[in-house]
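User: We ran a pulldown and think these components assemble together. Before we commit to crystallization trials, I'd like a predicted model of the whole complex to look at. Sequences follow.
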Amino acid sequence: MNPYLAYVPLDKATRLLNHGPTVLVSARHAGMSNVMAAAWCCALDFTPPKLTIVLDKSARTRTLVERSGRLVIQVPTAGQLKMTHALGNVSLKDDPEKLAHCGATLFELAGQDLPFVEGCAAWLVCKVISEPHNEQVYDLFIAEVVAAWADSRVFHDGHWLFEEADPAMRSLHHVAGGHFYAIGDALKVRGVMTD
Amino acid sequence: MNPYLAYVPLDKATRLLNHGPTVLVSARHAGMSNVMAAAWCCALDFTPPKLTIVLDKSARTRTLVERSGRLVIQVPTAGQLKMTHALGNVSLKDDPEKLAHCGATLFELAGQDLPFVEGCAAWLVCKVISEPHNEQVYDLFIAEVVAAWADSRVFHDGHWLFEEADPAMRSLHHVAGGHFYAIGDALKVRGVMTD
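Assistant: Here's a predicted model for the assembly, 390 residues in total across the polymer chains.
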């Protein structure tokens, strides 16, 4: 277990996603776990925190989400670049050993029957809010965040600390194919109070 | 007119948003124009390109979007930090001179009766796809991108060039309050073909 795993209060959970990182989506149903990468995930509301996530009909992870109604959204790091890209390009249908071959290791959290990916910067446990029209027409899922954790070396007191942490912990931001960016320098507007 | 303004083919338009930048939303109705900042904007589909954008019921820009059915999503730059923050925190209701006071200058594009913000890195003209349930319950709007442009110094041939361009042209990624990040270093997965 990562000794830096720290609970994030729900009223700060959207801050894990506001800066637009590429995410990993994991889910479990009937003993089967899977993880995929997704660039199209976005915060939707503050309290209770909600998010949107686009899950293609061909994705095996989507089937697990549909059957269980639950998922984990994770913020992978620059150090997980190769793994993140592989998780977005290999299907469990083609490779039953997908997770191992992509280099993803799962861990468990007490009380959560869900697969969490080791080494990420943040983890958000979500419950799907059923919206069949959005899901069928747009592949768009709406989910409520019911618990969240972050690695306290890179997210603390409601703020990311990318400028202080190991550069390998920076979030990933996908463009296309194998082309990503890491998040960069902090910019602060002077004279603005920030809690 | 910005001499670097270049048309982006629609099948590459989502690449302007894949990396999760904070955006500016502008709209016009009956001669009134407004611009707001929004962190919750996300690509939704490739062809035709679609996106989601969260517009709070209190936002005057939302009213303009609802009445005209059209909007521009813009990718502001690190050099526009102060302006972007101000556009997200000042309402046209409180300050009829909001745009001037925030430092935003608008320009026109032929054939588009829409307000475009000068100095951004990219501009996406969108048409709202009416989804009253999402709009009312979640403040979530779905829109189709019908035309897109980018500044060719920072986006070319379907890819961002942040690593080569002036650092002041990097995209902004909001966390909370006056705390943002600029996009950072390019990361490329080796051996992956990218078009």
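Chain A touches chain B through 56 residues (CB under 8 Å). That may be worth checking against your pulldown data before setting up trials.

User: Thanks, that helps.
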